[in-house]
Amino acid sequence: MMEVLLMKDVPKLGQKGSIIKVKLGYGRNYLLPYRFATLATKDNMRLLEVEKKHTLQVLEQQKEELKKVAQELEVTACTIEAKANEEGHLFGSVSYPMIQEAFRKLGFQLEPDSIQLEDASLYPIKQLGIFTITVRLHAEIVVKTKVWVVSQQQEASE
To answer: What are the angstrom distances between the C-alpha of 118 and each of 63, 72, 81, 146?
Structure first.
């Protein structure tokens, strides 16, 4: 048996950073050459701790940037023009990718799967109005903003 320090998550074996005992052949012929693990020495454990701290710092920095984006997004609303009849019913519909594109034009990079209407029964949007959407930027950062669906103006013919 040999003790190894996992450098990556290995299914049915353990998580990154775990110290486990494996058979010599498995460790020498699979885990070590493919860099799934390294020998469990004090130096290797210290290096892994330094790497974990660095990764946590980067994640915290990204989270702070997303919080700033969330604050901007909260006070921003996008407007989508669509063809509609006199009663306010759209001839098509407004979908999440269309909402994503409208926010992209305003300078926000959102994923369509991070956007959700507050009232999911209204999706896709098929009428004029103001709709509240929820945007999930991060597992811990969720923000609400508005989408205005307005009637497309007919161009006057000369």
So the answer is: 24, 19, 20, 10
